[in-house]
Amino acid sequence: MGRKLDLDTGTPVWSAYRAPADRSAPLQRDAACDVLIVGLGISGAMAAEALTAQGLSVIGVDRRGPMRGSTRSTTALVQFEIDEPITSLSGKIGRAKAEQAWRRSRLAVTNLQGRIAQLGIRCRLETRSSLYVAGNVLGAGKLWEEAQARVAAGLRATYLSASALNEGFGIDRAGAILSDNNLALDPLKLTVGFLREAARRKARFYAPVEVTRLVHHASDVVAETREGRRITAGHVVLATGYELMDVVASDTHSIISTYVIATKPQKSSLWPGAAFVWEASDPYLYMRATHDGRVICGGEDEEFQDEDRRDALIPAKTARLAKKLKQLFPQLDTEPDFAWAGSFGTTTTGLPSIGPLPGRPRVFAVQGYGGNGITFSQIASELVSTAISGGRDTDAALFAFGREDRSA
């Protein structure tokens, strides 16, 4: 029902830490539920927790198994800052919508932090500042304009001059925007935390199970599986990440290959506050530190062609990332301890598409996470659980499938 991609190659850094247990089981008979979730990565896990919190019965399935797709290759920079700056997003969807998208992203990070605390999920959560530094896309002047746009939208942002940036963080760039209260965490532990909470509320998880067809009826949807079982659900949520199922439109969605390295632990060599750092550049460059002082550095994105082409570039991309990291922070040992390549989906606006699928009654989907996968997954869990429970989210139209890019 959709193309199966080899979503990552290499060894993601999260393999250095104790892996959480997989609690899925084979699907041995037909089943029924209020909501079927297809995909058991971070997005599916968040949706399962949010829906079971509403008292709904949930079944989750995955054709590989929990966390065996894109979730394990994420770098887990949980930022409210969307890939598309307010100043450029405004030209695509209008100023008011751009500001609201950024505000909703800010709220999502706050809500996620609160939910993690409320549920007691142990995922090595730490709050981090973020530095958006001048590059070849936005220089110092454009960054200053972007900082003013964020403030006008009600978002705290501090513009740092070249001297302030160098003095405060040891970074030699023309300027930067400093933001606060983003989140660093272990994505696998976070995903397991949400899955376990949903399971405590009687959610059922099955794998490997591949949905091959959705059959619509007046009051439910029947999911037929390659294994020959049928799952009857009041609603279906497609949380399949970047492997779009055939029922999901892809005309505004594209797949990007990305590359990442992680160094050995070196806490004493990190920059002040271990702030997230990302460049306003093309190709993209970003970095963060883990709880034990490894530096994760990623970017060098390419349009996805095929897995072989993506993977053949790993050695050259790894060397380039290590060199760029060394140029920015000469005190670091940038020799890669881990290196991997992955694929992710993006849209023409940088915003995800979340909500009911046109022409597909009772089916919801999420696509286009870009560089904000966990943040957008939180927004998706909020929008979808509210809609299925019969509520109304005032931002639903902002992220809906089939929305117009430009404002009237």
Q: What this model shows, in words?
A:
The structure is a single chain. With 408 residues, the chain is of the alpha+beta class. The protein folds into 2 domains: 8-74 and 188-251 and 350-399, FAD/NAD(P)-binding domain (3-Layer(bba) Sandwich), CATH 3.50.50; 125-184 and 252-347, D-Amino Acid Oxidase, Chain A, domain 2. The chain is built from 10 helices and 18 strands. Strands 1, 4, 5, 6, 7, 12, 13, 14, 15 and 16 form a 10-stranded mixed sheet that branches. Strands 2, 3, 8, 9, 10, 11, 17 and 18 form an 8-stranded mixed sheet that branches. Helix 1 (42-53) links the parallel strand 2 (31-38) and strand 3 (58-61). The chain is globular, with a radius of gyration of 21 Å. It starts with 7 loop residues before the first strand and ends in a 9-residue tail after the last helix. Residues 1-8 have low confidence and may be disordered.
The CATH superfamily of the largest domain is known as: FAD/NAD(P)-binding domain
Q: Which stretches are low in confidence, meaning pLDDT under 50 for 5 or more residues running?
A: 1-8
Category by helix and strand content = alpha+beta
Number of helices: 10
What is the 3D form? globular
Q: Please tell me how large the radius of gyration is.
A: 21 Å
Q: Could you name the CATH topology of the largest domain?
A: FAD/NAD(P)-binding domain
- The CATH class of the largest domain is Alpha Beta
Q: How much is the average pLDDT?
A: 89
Give the % helix.
Answer: 25-40%
Distance between the termini: 36 Å
